[in-house]
Write a structure and sequence with these properties.
Blueprint: E1 2-8, H1 14-23, E2 30-34, H2 47-51, H3 63-74, E3 79-85, E4 90-98, E5 103-107, H4 115-118, E6 123-128, H5 131-144, H6 150-169, E7 178-181, H7 187-202
Parallel strand pairs: 1-5, 1-6, 2-5, 6-7
Antiparallel strand pairs: 3-4
Helix pairs in contact: 1-7, 5-6
Length: 204
């Protein structure tokens, strides 16, 4: 099994990169494990308490469960992946079953930050997009898809997302084997990754 990590700032286009790769390949080639699914279980907290959590800090994630699940997939075992709701700021009761595949992509803002997880990766990718472009994408997504107001998005960006990016996410670029500028708009980078994965699977 080959494990690929895809990191980058929020709104960088890393999810789009992964989606385009997966859609261009047969369904049995790739399993995707998003870091967003592994936010800590805060379902016991009140709605107001959950809203105040800094979801852009490393402590917001259940790294123990994520690394255990990646190890299980690498060993050929299926996992029950958590499901997280951005509208509820909470992990939901249901899970999603993920079957092992020849290639597992672990995708999320900080997947290159955790050393144990990083050491399991055969290829590490950082999606690098201009900060203004990332902010615009965040604004559009959070207002349209997550029910936030423009004021809420701007406040959270200035207080949490921007400083956390500079402190925890941007520095992980140094661990990347490959940097893809402009995310989902970089068709050449996506094509190279697709060919890489095809080569891995067909060589087996």
């Amino acid at each position: 099994m080959t494990i690929i990590g895809v990191a980058g700032g929020t709104g960088s286009g890393k999810t789009t990169v992964v989606r385009k790769i997966v859609e261009s390949l047969p369904p049995h080639y790739v399993a995707v494990v998003p870091l967003d699914s592994y936010y800590n279980d805060e379902s016991a907290a009140t709605p107001e308490e959950r809203k105040s959590i800094n979801v852009d800090h490393p402590d917001a994630f259940d790294w123990t469960l994520l690394t255990a699940h990646v190890k299980a997939l690498r060993a050929g075992q299926p996992i029950e992946m958590p499901v997280y709701s951005y509208k509820e700021f909470s992990r939901l009761p249901q899970t999603e079953r993920i079957e092992p595949r020849p290639v597992v992509i672990v995708e999320g803002i900080m997947v290159l930050l955790n050393k144990e997880l990083r050491d399991m990766m055969d290829l590490k990718i950082y999606v690098d997009t201009d900060s203004d472009e990332r902010f615009i994408r965040n604004l559009q997504r959070d207002v349209i898809e997550r029910g936030r107001t423009v004021e809420m998005v701007i406040d959270r960006y200035l207080r949490m997302k921007k400083p956390m990016h500079e402190l925890f996410i941007e520095p992980t670029k140094k661990y990347a084997d490959l940097i893809i500028p402009q995310g989902g708009e970089n068709n050449t980078g996506i094509k190279i990754l697709r060919k890489y994965i095809e080569g891995i699977v067909t060589d087996r």
